[in-house]
UniProtKB/TrEMBL annotation:
Name of the protein in its database record: Acyl-CoA dehydrogenase family protein
Domain Acyl-CoA dehydrogenase/oxidase N-terminal: 7-92
GO molecular function: 3-methylbutanoyl-CoA dehydrogenase activity; flavin adenine dinucleotide binding
InterPro entries to which the protein is assigned, alphabetical: AcylCoA_DH/ox_N, AcylCoA_DH/ox_N_sf, AcylCoA_DH/oxidase_NM_dom_sf
One family name in Pfam for this protein: Acyl-CoA_dh_N
PANTHER family xref list: ACYL-COA DEHYDROGENASE, ISOVALERYL-COA DEHYDROGENASE, MITOCHONDRIAL-RELATED
Length: 129
């Protein structure tokens, strides 16, 4: 079994490490002092393709595999765990929401008169897919 990163994984690691050092590191001290996450990070993460990393490209995500996802989290955490946690909290629920909405779209497409449960209670249905 080969435990080496692929060239794609290395490229993800190098890109995110450079981004974290250049874009995140300068913001950490002030964010820790004020206890406020800089909102501009979300635009920067999006521009780099880091929001929705596990979502398929056809759905607007980056289509990364689980290893790349872990590499992103590790490289962000290396600079600031709080920023990495915020990234994770805002990225990973999208994966479930997209699976859930696909489930509803498929359900409604097969029967347009179907009673679609409201999204507030969707997590139990998403787990069934």
């Amino acid at each position: 079994m080969d435990f080496e990163f692929s060239s794609q994984h290395e490229q993800v690691r190098e890109t995110v490490a450079r981004f974290a050092a250049e874009e995140i590191a300068p913001l950490v001290a002030e964010a820790e002092e004020t206890e406020v996450l800089p909102r501009e990070l979300f635009r920067k993460w999006a521009a780099l393709g880091l929001l929705g990393v596990r979502n398929p490209e056809a759905d607007g995500g980056s289509g990364f595999d689980k290893i790349s996802d872990c590499i992103v989290r590790e490289e962000l955490s290396r600079v600031c765990q709080a920023f990495a946690s915020s990234w994770s909290a805002h990225t990973h629920p999208l994966t479930r929401a997209m699976r859930t909405s696909r489930y509803y779209v498929a359900m409604s497409a097969s029967d347009p008169t179907a009673d679609i449960p409201d999204m507030q209670h969707s997590s139990c249905l998403a787990d069934q897919s």
